[in-house]
Design goal:
globular, six-stranded antiparallel β-barrel
């Protein structure tokens, strides 16, 4: 199953992505132009901004990256993952502040 998530690249720069192969320590992320992503960023795992994880890129392909979470994803937070749909955030619809991890 694939899950929708949002990359926080800067306070006003969000990018939609899809998660697969997610574990408590990392994930595979499908995203356009993966080479443009920084080596570290915040990943919002639900529409309300929580849970979220700080990620470090460990490998890259043209449209996918592998990330390691700076802290583990507890099983109870996996319940909040949203299955991927055609509805995604638009930059001006995103929350102005990202909750702290």
């Amino acid at each position: 199953m694939r899950y929708h998530a949002v990359l926080v690249l800067a306070p006003d720069a969000l990018r939609d992505c899809s998660l697969s192969d997610i574990s408590d320590t990392g994930a595979r992320i499908s995203v356009e132009a993966a080479e443009e992503l920084p080596d570290r960023f915040t990943l919002l795992l639900s529409g309300n901004g929580a849970p979220q994880r700080t990620c470090r890129v460990v490998w890259r392909e043209p449209n996918q990256i592998g990330v390691e979470f700076e802290r583990r994803l507890p099983p109870q937070e996996r319940v909040g993952l949203v299955p991927e749909t055609d509805t995604h955030f638009v930059d001006d619809e995103a929350p102005s502040e990202v909750p702290a991890e």
